[in-house]
Amino acid sequence: MFISRYLDDVVAWAPAKVNLYLEVLGKRPDGYHEIETLMVAIRLFDTLVFRDAPDLSLSCSEAGVPTGPDNLVLRAARLLQDHTKTQRGAAIRLIKRIPIAAGLAGGSTDAAATLIGLNRLWQTGLADSELASLSARIGSDIPFFFQTPAAWCTGRGEIVEPVDFPSPLDVVLLCPSFGLSTAAVYKNVQIGTRGADATPLAEEETRGADATPLVKGDAIRAALAKGDVDLIGRLMHNRLQTAAESLEPRVGEYVRMLAEYGPAGQLMSGSGSTLFGLCRSPDEATRLAAGLTMRTKAHDFRVIVTKTL
User: Fold this and answer.
1) CATH 3.30.1390.10 matches 170-307
2) Residue spans in the chain of domains classed CATH 3.30.230.10
């Protein structure tokens, strides 16, 4: 997260993320899913501008983004108001670049930026650790954005352990025109089989007879620590991808399309719909993006070349 003050405005740049690994361990008694995921922030940013105002309000550059009270930005702002008992308001302007309903955590990163930005604007003096703890009340992915650039996240995603890696990774995003519902994808996920010594969770019946074994994340964490891009690519995994493909077959089609260009790996991010190719160099990323761009006339998607933070 990057934040600056310009005269009357506080400006925050909120990064997107991709998941290099995501395993669903089971359904929890509270209705959420227990997960393990390796998330990295990428250089694709929304921008939020905060200015003092009598009340809270939100405007957005993207017409399709709701700006009512259910938007995570306003929910985060109200949460900080309630927690600090401040009477101050803010006019918030959101310049949207991260696709919505795309598995890139655009709403979550905007909420984290709001907590950080308003904490600065209102001079409430909360530490990032307290803001992160607050943020978990309204979204499982939000605490990650207080621990970028990379973290191992467990629980429902809100337990965040920062991890280091030696150099940025080159990534090409394939962003379809369609989005996917996170709830629908999780509802359709087939949870993998676990060892006999595993602690039962709430709904073991979601494991079908033909379920594949759970994939452990130790190896990809080690590969990331070494900066071994080819090994990271081979170990990338997302349990939600098959469920997303069953809801929207173009997800599988686009994964296969990415694979045709031979990147180190290709995967869906989060609950989709964005796919990404992990590349070995900026030149490979440029070639992959050029190849995909030639196909945008026949397929309705955007191509974005980026890196991890």
Assistant:
1) no
2) 2-162
Alpha carbon of 157 to those of 132, 184, 278: distances in Å?
A: 12, 18, 23
Cross-sheet strand order for the sheet of 275-279: 265-268, 275-279, 170-176, 301-307
The domain 2-162: what is its CATH number? 3.30.230.10
Distance (Å, rounded) from C-alpha 299 to C-alpha 292? 9
Of 27, 46, 110, 141, catalytic: 141
**70 noted as active-site residue:** no
Burial class (CB in 10 A: 0-12, 13-18, 19+), 51: middle
For the entire predicted model, the pTM comes to 0.93
- Residue 141: active-site member: yes
Confidence of residue 201 (pLDDT cuts 50, 70, 90): low
Residue pair 103/185 in contact (Cβ under 8 Å)? The answer is: no
